[in-house]
Write the structure tokens for this entry.
Amino acid sequence: MPAPQTPTPTAPSAADAAHPPEQPLIPPGQVWINGKLVDSTEAAISVFDHGLLYGDGVFEGIRAYQGRVFKLGAHLKRLEESARAIRLDLPYTLDQLAAACRQTLEVNGLHDGYIRLVLTRGAGALGIHPFTCRCASAFIIATEVRLYPQALYDNGLAIITASTIRNHPAALSPRIKSLNYLNNILAKIEAIDAGVLEAVMLNHQGYVAECTADNLLLVKDGVVTTPPTHAGALEGVTATTVLALAKDLGIPTARQDLTRHDLYTADEMFLTGTAAEVIGVTEIDKRPVGDGQVGPITKRLLSAFRDMIAQGAPED
């Protein structure tokens, strides 16, 4: 009798979020760690790494389309600024990290995919003293990515408002894309328990910040509005790109504080993110958004985004 074959693991889709596999799957391929490529099943960092022990590090999630790394320059700039804000010295230049991202993508045979670039404080003594870590560590994962199912782009997402709030901006700036995501994870659990895939997170004042892994934008009276960074929203690369596309299309935009009432009375709502791109929201907290359908401005912006990608994803 032939030996049973082990199925090839693939990256989970967003629709699978509420139903994870029984065993964690490590995608096959090569991972770049501190200048070396190693098999994904052997990729490891020290148990004394402060990124693991204390969430002491920063990261970027980046998309590649047709062999071009989307907005790589913007992502690396944000990574550098996040590292500088937490006094983490880059172990490589931005040019070296850019080359490593492309190398990892190429060695894994990916033309379209997702890149995770992570910097940690490195290995050090137990205890939170950061300067026992003599050198930061860097690793890069490149793997396949699946968007939300097309049906959700056509029909929209249902989301909830989570009780778990974003970090206070005086405790951790929302402009730092750090490894500290526990409150986002707790909010994500709330979403999963409610049978949906995303949750809106409010800040300490009750204003809208963002979703657990995406920026949130709404449309009211023809204006696309999103919360400012001081409300707790990350400066999303995709969100910034979409706002620029809206300007090109003659659609007015604004950044202003938003409340749950603004969400409940919006004409349209959509999320933006590295994996999500642009996806409409048609229900929040059991209330329909607008007429309960993906709105015309949301559709225009998704179409404009995908047209831009089809013409060659900008790398700067």
Notes: Residues 97 and 165 are 33 Å apart (CA to CA).
